[in-house]
Every structure is written in structure tokens, then in C-alpha cells.
Amino acid sequence: MLGLNTTTQRLISTRQIALLIVLLTSITISLKGEPDNNGERTQSDSSIFTVIPQLRYQYPDSSLSLLNRAYDSFISQGDTLQAIKTLFIYANINGNLANYKDAYDKLWKGLALADEAKLEKQKALLYIEIGRYYSFYKKRKKALEYFQISLELNQKLLREGKINQAELVGNHYAFVSTYRELDDFPLAKKHLDSCFYYFDSQLSPIDKAYLEFESACISNAEEKYAEALKGFNKAHSWFESNDPSYLVLFYTYKGEALEGLNRWDESESFYRKALDISREYKMHIDFSPIVHEKLSELYLKKGDFKAAYTSLKAVKDLDAAFFDSRSAKNRSLLEIQDAFRMEQKAQQELIKEQKLERLEHEKDVWFLQRVIGVVSILFIITLSYLYFSYIRANYRAEKEILRKEKELELANANEVLEVKNKELAASALKLIEKDENLSLLKNKIKEADGDLKPNELKKIVRSISVSNDHNWKEFETRFVAVNKGFYENMKNKFPKLSQKDLKLCALIKLNFSCKEMAKLLGISVESAHTSRYRLRKKLNLTRDINLTEFIARI
């Protein structure tokens, strides 16, 4: 309306009133409905949602009145979905007018309807809006709690195939805008990345221009003002055409980018535009304290202290009106959280009492804190010592058990080896005894004067063969199987030992006597003694070392 003369303003005002009357009449008729062929009334479901966007900016009170009537009509028809939609729009209009109590009430009523009708998608949308109202009062934890509930609902719907993943953009966008307002830009950036990841121009519930706007705001926070300005300029035309009331926020943050580039006059101009848009559309009026605060800071930079003071006073007055619990707008909002308020009051009284007690007993508390600290440290040190002692003792016990198990295994192995060697020695002795018997039989047959014919006698003698070689090979095969690695160990320690020496070592290990060795090797007893003597020399053994014990240890 700026720059228009009085006559023109009156003409426009008259036209607006006429338009309002026509619209109200058409909506009233639509809501009353006309009888159909069965005598029942019908209603144009979409008429209210078509007309309200034309009314809400200039005639918000009339829009709210129509929405109330539409809600009653939808409820009487049992159309829960449309009823929830009217409550949602009603809350949005009141929220932009900073009538938070009414907005809050309508959202909770919508949530109750959605829950009863099991409309999970609508519940997810309502939880986001409820969370936003908590964020306006910097109740971060509660706001994020409701956003998370909404996100989990939509993720469940996504898994069930009831929504597309592009619809998750709305959830992440709620986090982005809230974190921006709370000046937590790293988390805002994280969720903005998720928005771009899930974004689909056909399916996402918000336009890409909002994401570009948030991206530019983050660039502002990172002091990348030139980059931010490019982002704002890119999205500007879309907001002018599609959501002019949002220019309140848009111009504010664009002014911030210009201020960062030291283009102060342009910055002031955009701050002023933001306030004009808020007044013109009667939207985002609760954002005006932020705009005045930025103007105040800008005027201080420019040295205009009077204007800075005026803006700062406006900040104080507006902030008190919109966010102070004493204001008429917010008193009723806080009353719906009566239990919470009473608890807060009780806590404040308790804090006062505790503060007085602290002042009275400050020295005692200080001493007690120190004692508790020392005791805690000693307790931790003692606990740590006991723990490490336990670990160390446990380690030693396990080590001792392993050692004993090893010794037992070794003892068992030695016992088994000894038994097998005894069996091997007994087997060798049997071979010797067999050979002796065969030799004796052979000699007796030779000397026999019986009736045997010479040719038959010779044939029997030839069949009885005494083979020391065969006996030794059979013995050696069994010995090597029982005493694995014995020959290899002997060769490694005494490389000069011959094959004959190794045979002798094997028989000595089994504790054979010289007579038994002689029979098994097919040599005389004297030769066996000589071989033992030569073996001692090769092993470099002195007289005080027992040959049999020495070889048994290898």
C-alpha cells in the first residue's frame, strides 16, 4: 500500500470488502450444502481449501471463523481427514499471528482425531507442528522429541510401502529450520544434506526453494556472505510468486548477508522490507523482534545510536508480547502446561532454599566435597589395584596350570615311549631266540643219521635260513616308528657317526647287553664290546659318564 494516495487506497479497500462478501457468501452456501436427489445435503469438499488462501492474509479472523464452521461440517459428515486438514490450517494461521495457545489446542485436537482414526501420516505431520511450537520457546529437547516421533512414524510407513522416501524431506526440514533458529548450524547442515538426498520435485512435500533458502542461511552462519547472497537471489522469484509471506524470513536473512558484506544501506532496506511484509500479510509477526534486533545492531555499526535504541526498545516490547509468560497471548498457552509450570515453580523454590543452605554451610560443603573427592580417588586406586592383582594372579595360575599340563603330557609321552621301547626290546629278543632255535635245528638236522635221504635233508636245511639282515631291518623299522627323530638328533649332534654306530646307539638306548647286541647284529661279543668302546670315543665321553644314560637322554 506504500506510495498510494488516499483515494486509491479507499478504492482498493472497497474492492477487497466486496470480494470478501462474495467469498463469504459462496462459502456459507457451500458449507450449508444443497439437498441431493435423496433429500440429503452435499458439500464441495475442496471449496474451503481453495478460498482460504485468498482470505487468510487480509482477513485472518474471517478465515478462522470459516474454518471453524468447516470443521463442524466435516465432523458431522464423519470426514475425519478433511476435519484434520481444517485444524491444521487453523493452527498455521494462528501460529503466524503468534496466537500460540489457539494453534496449540487445534493441533492436539487434530492429533487426537488422527490417533482415533489411525491416520499415521497425519499424525506425523501434526507431531512436526507441535514440535515447532516448543522450539519457538527454545524448548529444544521437547521439540526434537516430537520431531523424532514424527520421523519414526514416517520411516515405519516407508518400510510398509505406504509413503515414498521423498516424504521424509518434511521431517528433516523440520530439524533444519529448528536447528537454524537455535543457532546449531552443524546439525542443521547435516539434516539439510538428508533433505537434498531424499528430495524429489514431484513427490517431496516442500519446494526446493526452501532448501536453497536454508542452505543460504547456513552460508551466512559460516560467514560466506557472497555465496549466501547468490543462494538468496536464486530462490527469490519463487517466494515472490508462491509464498510471499515467507519473504519476512527471506528478507531478514538476505539483509544479514548484505550486512556481512558491509552493504549496510541495502541491508537496512531488506530488514525494513521484512517488517513491511509481516504487517501487510499479518504473518510471521513473532519474527519481528529478531528483525528489530538486527536493525539495532546495524544502527550501532552505523553510529546511529538513537535509531539503535528505538529498535532495541521494539525488541523488548515485542519479545515480551510474544514470548513473555506475563503476556495475554502466552498466559493461556502456559496454563495448558499447568503441571509443568507448578513443578517448575516448586523447583525454583527448592533452588532458593538450597542456595541459602549452601551459603550457610559453604565451608562444610567444601570440606565434604574434598573428602568425597579424596575417598573416590582412593576407592578408584584401590579398586584398580585389586583388579590388576586379580588379573595378574589369574595369569600366573593359568601359566602354572599350562606348565603342569605340559609336564604331565611329557611324562605320559615318556612313559608311553618307555613301554613301547620295552615291547620293542622284547620283540628283538624273540627274534634272536627264534634265530638261535632255527640255527640249533639246522645243526641237528645236519648231524642226523636218520632215514632222511640226502637230497631231502639238504632241501630242509636250505629252507631254514637265518638272516640277521632281515631281523635288523624289521627291528629298525619298528624302532624308528617308536623313537621318532632319534637318528636325526644323533646325526645333528654327532655328524661323524656311521650307520653302524647309529645301529649300536639304538640298541644301547633299549638297554641291550653286549651279548644281545652281538646276536642281533651277527657279530661276536668281543666285537660288540669293541664297538661300544669306539662309540664312546666318537661321542667324546669321559669314563665317569655312563654311555647308556647319555644316549637315553637324547
Architecture overview:
- The chain has 554 residues and is mainly alpha-helical.
- Among the domains are: 219-324, Tetratricopeptide repeat domain (Serine Threonine Protein Phosphatase 5, Tetratricopeptide repeat, Alpha Horseshoe), CATH 1.25.40; 433-552, no CATH class.
- 79% of the residues lie in helices and 0% in strands.
- The chain contains 25 helices and no strands.
- The protein has helices at 6-32, 47-55, 60-77, 80-96, 100-116, 120-136, 140-159, 168-181, 185-198, 208-221, 225-242, 247-260, 264-281, 288-302, 305-323, 328-335, 338-360, 362-447, 454-463, 468-482, 486-493, 499-509, 514-521, 525-538, 547-552.
- Helix 4 (80-96) packs antiparallel against helix 5 and helix 6 (120-136) packs antiparallel against helix 7.
- The longest helix is centred in the C-terminal third of the chain and has 86 residues, at 362-447.
- Mean pLDDT is 78; it is low at 1-45 and 330-341.
Tell me the quaternary state: single chain
Reading the helices and strands in chain order gives: HHHHHHHHHHHHHHHHHHHHHHHHH
- Biggest sheet overview: none
SS strand fraction: under 5%
Q: How many DSSP-defined strands? A: 0
What's the total helix number?
A: 25
> What is the 3D shape?
elongated
In the predicted model, the low-confidence regions spanning at least 5 consecutive residues are 1-45, 330-341
Task: Tell me the structural class.
Answer: mainly alpha
Estimate percent helicity: over 70%
Query: How far is the first residue's CA from the last residue's CA?
Result: 114 Å
Instruction: Write down the Rg.
Output: 52 Å
Q: What's the pLDDT, averaged over the residues?
A: 78
